[in-house]
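Field reference: sequence -> structure
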Amino acid sequence: MFGLAESVKHTRVYQEGLEQEGQTLVLKQLSRKVGKLPPKLELQIKALPLECVEELAEALLDFSTLDDLSAWLHNHNPGQ
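Structure field:
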């Protein structure tokens, strides 16, 4: 029984669900912290892998403005 539950956690669908859940939570937290996000920043956040979303969830506690978010995204995703 536990083997099946563990194998489900390693599926692509499960991992994508975790990413989406993390992105949704971070977007809500950011909206409360710094105000409405521009669509461009939302898209950048939605493109982040789960590890970066988790880092952002912690970093956003220190943000005061959208500029803080923009700088963080630039440093963690320089290709965009």
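Note: The mean pLDDT is 87.
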